[in-house]
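Dear all,

This email documents one entry for the complex benchmark we are building for the journal club exercise. For each entry we list the sequence lines for every component of the assembly. Then comes the predicted three-dimensional structure of the complex as a token string, followed by one or two observations. Please use this as the template for your own entries, and keep the labels exactly as they appear.
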Amino acid sequence: MSLNVDFTFSLNGKNVAAVVGVTESALDLLRREFDLAGAKLACGEGECGACTIIVDGRSRNACLMPAVDLEGRTILTIEGLWTEKGVDPIQQAFIDEGAVQCGFCTPGMIMQARYLIDRNPQLNEADIVRGLEGNVCRCTGYKKIIAAVSAASEGARS
Amino acid sequence: MTVADRIIEKKSVIGDRVAKLDAPDKATARTRYINDMVLPRMLFGKILRTDRVHAKIVSIDTSKAKELPGVHAVITASDAPDGKIGVLADNPPLKSDHVRCIRDEIAAVAADSEEICDVALRLISVEYEDLPTVFDCTEALSEGAPIIHEDKPDNIAMQKNFSHGDIETGERESDHIVEGNYNVHYVTHCNMGVSCTLADYDMDGRVTIYTQTQYPFNVKMDIAPSLGAHPGDVRIFQPPIGGAFGSKLDVYPYEPICAILARKTRRPVKLIFSREEEFVASPTRQPVEFRVRAGMKKDGTLTFRDVDTLLNNGGYTSWGATTPYVTMRTITSHYKVPHLRYRARAVYTNNPFAGSFRGYGNVQATWAIETHMDRMAEVAGLDPIAFRLKNANEPGEITPQGANLGNIDLVGCIKQAAEKSDFLAKWKRNNQSWSNSERFKRGIGIAASLHNAGGAKIHKSDGCGTMLKMDDYARVTVITGASEIGQGSDTVIAQLVAEELGVPMRDITIINNDSATRPWDVGVHASRTTFVAGNSAKRAARKARDRILRAAASRSNVAAEKLDLRSGHVVQAEDGVVIMPLDRLLRQMHFAGEESELVMETDYYEPPSEPEDENHVGDMSAAYSHAAHVAEIVVDTKLGLINVEKVWSVQDVGRVINPVGLEGQIEGGIAMGLGYALTEELKIVEGRVLNPSFRDYHVMTAPEMPEFDLTFLETDDAEGPAGAKGIAELPTIVIAPAVGNALYNATGVRIFDPPMTPEKVARAIAEHARQ
């Protein structure tokens, strides 16, 4: 805990600086230093996807990523999806399709979906199902989540 | 009237696809869950658990931990009041002299950070003297077995027995008797939000507890003795939580421990589990050993059912031990059975203990009964549909336990599930492929069950209160006793209120998270919230509507009964002609000098049900419901993998209030039931949990989900709000035996003890081939 590192990175479109302990995870840093509680600690071992964030365009489990690895990188969290134009179309699709129950997995699901759609605007249902494999939801049975990502993906194409 | 008169058509929101009220904040991460909460000057708490499964505590030394900088309190049993928790009050939150299972709490620390807590826990040394152990129910019941609780020398924590008719007569009347043992396993809730609580004492001894509880009022009574407090001095807040599924229907040791740390430090303390701790130390579903004997006549008419069950109670008694209340209902009331006997014994062992879990007692019962029914159908020479229909319950039937089944539609559920899935043609075709050498075999199976759908009167009241007020802008505030835990009750309540008051959904605010504000409710369990809280909200709204229409009548020349509320206006019911905007009327009512009145109404709804008597007879729910599931699977006979391709669900829902929420509950419930059937098992060997992680305990993921075909039967319950019944548990209850029966249809192999893992299925298929 005594060994700290300071560095800068881009967080939700803004350059930020942080002092972090070398043992701290990216998830701890986002929650502690930046009060971004959207990424959730649900397992702490990369098995559930509730902490999913986007790092340099790729989805990552923030719980497994050392905070010091954020240096110089571009980070997008669920809190960065909202703009003055409104919520992200994926967020709207989750609301409209009934993809949210307890909602604890929702930020991770939405960030994974954002990554999948950004990477491949031609997503089909099989791509979506495979792409969400690492994100656990205990409430919904996934159908409405898949439908929401599918709707958002179609919206992104048109 | 002139052509300029504005007309508003009548429009119902019942049955609309309404987005959940909490979805926008959850989808944008504006929602702060209890796990995210931070209070000013907050400390962190952590628990030291034993590493023994059965031992005497010789000594506990906390002196080094107390000296660690950053530590504010270290507590052991000597710092705690004597009061115990649990259904039988057999569980001291901190153990002083005796540990009985791997979860047992020895000491706890409050410190400036979780890291300091971890270090402090490592500085506590505990000396034990190991005791003989027992993990198996039958062994625990045998002579000379280790005694887990001194006041229960026979190790029996709880017993429930029921009989109806005469088993011997039933046996005499039987042409066939079928026997079977079904052992159902440990699974756990896997809430995405791990267990978490915050406690904060004021200087006058009143405590505020932020908790995930599902029963915000009785919890005060249950936790108070362990705090040495008066229940009235306990205030319960329920922030948003990451799932519960029944896991929070009791007080568990971490809650009083957190509160004692808060009292000791007079600072808020937050205690949160790790995921590993969640697997090891939160309640499981109750495992049960079923011994089933059942008879029938040549034509397949059931004659008797005799079921003996042993429940592994673990070291302490929570709600798992009481699941026979519901198991018994399925055994006695699912299908018409003239002669019945049921015996349940919950037996103390050195295993972890079970709580309540969605489908409480009925997931287990339905696995045993619906697997057994399939086997009996075969003996009777009938197909699974014909055999079930022959014995199906009928509307208006009074079951041996006194349940008036009312307007149920079991026959409709089974028939529609069979028709929609083309069950019989597929079933017959699959039966002929047992002996062929194809690796991938197709199977189809059916199961059905019944469940309470209008609450369950297991407490002195099964009621729910509502306080409703309208403001000068015709905005409605509904303060409800109901707990929203993600299942969507706020949205359903708002729809029912919107329907009565003719206001837009977005003009309704639901408040429901503070026991000091909201009226009493028994809790969110037993598929009761839509029915009970929905009725209460609807009735409060009806009172407000009546008051408004009376006021409108006195201000117009139209009688109250000829008025209606639509889209924020008072209109003539017959033609929709607008009389006046609702907000203007409310202001006129409010600012009327000495005649002023505010629209504020209350209601307490007690469902017309009765508690069971000492013989377990009573109409304990105000409504009952059935569901039938058909599962179509493909079995890889080489690897033992079951791929569930499609599930047809037909459920008697009374009336659809919100299709989005209903589909979500059914799809999610089936997913949870599929995990029970196929992959989930908390592996407990000699009292220790071997797989406390999502890596080794597999819950269903997106690629494993089948296609769904959902049918809602609308039977319009006379008592239910807008005709609706409670729906949320049946989906989890019914699916597993449908899959098990499909496995048999595909391969001729039957698994009696879930989960049907690839290892188990492959081994059974290989053994079957050798025979």
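Observations: The mean pLDDT of chain A is 95. The CA atoms of residues 95 and 148 of chain A lie 8 Å apart.
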